[in-house]
Amino acid sequence: MDALGCALLPAFCALCGSPLPQLSSVPICAACWTEFPVQSGSLCARCGDLLDAPALAVPSSSGLCRPCRLAPPPFVRAVAYGPYQDRMRAAIHALKYDRLHPLARALGRMLAQAIAQLAADAPSEMLVVPVPLHRSKHAQRGFNQARSLAVHALDALRKTHPAWRLTLASSTLMRLRPTESQAGLTSHQRRSNVRGAFSVSDPAAVTAKHILVIDDILTTGATARAAAQALVRAGAASVWVATLARARRNNELHLGSNFQDAEDTTGLSGSSPDAAEQQTSIYSSHDQPSF
Ligand SMILES: [Zn+2]
Ligand SMILES: [Zn+2]
């Protein structure tokens, strides 16, 4: 943030609107920083979704949610800092749509805490791959929030986990086409929407490598599945996922347009068109996801 940018920032908290005692490069009040929700409750050991959802995620002895039991994702594990609600939701909006870039550092530190949950189990050397935007969306927004968050998270992790060799590899994944919101799409359209959304630019660069995929929000897990699938097909040894926030799958089912802003809109992906079909049927037998 340059000096002009600092001077232009409002003297009000970007999240709650209360006056700030002093002009700050990060316009968030002290109270709001303490009120970011953190992930709690019983979580799926694989995808990190809450296990207390009545329809989709009946807790089982496996510790996995129903979608993970029926169609295991191509990633080893997905972790998030906190639920996509309240202050977290407002902060991600402020970063992405209001372009409050100074927020990326603080949010990146939260992402680092999520990544640190993997430290005990994940490989000691990994390539860190932010989920890319399609070039049309990148041009429109001007930056990829997943990359910004990854850069700041790695900064933080270099201090807290100096032996962990995490290397940013931003250009590894490509988004081949813009993916539309899943809202209002039929299950057939959802499958079309997800098919082949990602490609690996240089398969040799990921062959036998362990990959950590980074995104701001994980919603249905469809984007994470599609990205992980592309990396595994290109020869990655394993794929792990960390996001800043986790939108609750069971909540979003009935919220419709409230969740259209989530980036995780590539649909429900499986390891093949058939698996994608099966995955979609997991939902259609209960409730239709709203995007
Ligand atoms: Zn505030
Ligand atoms: Zn799961």
List the keywords.
single chain, 291 residues, alpha/beta, Rossmann fold, 5-stranded parallel beta sheet, two-stranded antiparallel ribbon, 7 strands, 35% helix, disordered N terminus, disordered C terminus, binds zinc ion
Q: Spans of 5+ residues with little confidence (pLDDT < 50)?
A: 1-6, 251-291
Distance between the termini: 35 Å
Q: Which strand order does the major sheet show?
A: 1-7-6-2-3
- In helices, the fraction of residues equals 25-40%
Assign an overall shape: globular
User: Mean pLDDT score, rounded?
Assistant: 80
* Total beta strand runs: 7
Count of helical stretches:
12
The kinds of small molecule bound in this structure are:
zinc ion
Quick synopsis:
With about 290 residues, this protein is an alpha/beta fold. Helices cover about 35% and strands about 15% of the residues.
Structure description:
The chain is α/β, with parallel strands linked by helices and 291 residues long. It has two domains: 1-35, no CATH class; 39-284, Rossmann fold, CATH 3.40.50. The protein is built from twelve helices and seven strands. The chain has helices at 3-8, 30-33, 66-70, 86-96, 103-116, 135-141, 145-160, 187-194, 203-206, 222-233, 249-252, 273-284, and strands at residues 78-83, 125-130, 165-168, 173-175, 198-200, 210-218, 238-246. The chain has a five-stranded parallel beta sheet with strand order 1-7-6-2-3, sandwiched between helices. α5 (103-116) crosses α7 and α8 (187-194) crosses α12. It is globular.
